[in-house]
Amino acid sequence: xxxLVESGGGLVQPGGSLTLSCVPSGDIFSINRQGWYRRxxxxxxxLVATIVGGGSTKYADSVxxxxxxxxxxxxxxxxxxxxxxxxxxxxxxxxxxxxKNGFLPAYWGQGTQVTVSS
Length: 118
What we know:
This protein has 118 residues and is mostly beta strands. Helix content is 0%, strand content 52%.
């Protein structure tokens, strides 16, 4: 079951930009932390960026200075602005949302493909 829905992926040339969006597919519990993950071909899933309601953010070293994560707390929507894209950024990007109630499972989307190529 899809609980979060990612959009905005596609094919982009190196140096280009894309903005990913993640929206709930239905009612969800109150959210604490949200994040973006990605899995490149032949690699394990890795954490790209996280954000909490207060606005604190963290980024993987590989995307720091190029990507920006933001959040609309009222809509439980999270965005990932990707600039200066590189071929190494090619991956399936997944959205994650962690409920404030730690006994509840996290929400996940099915992913959106981002391909950076000439």
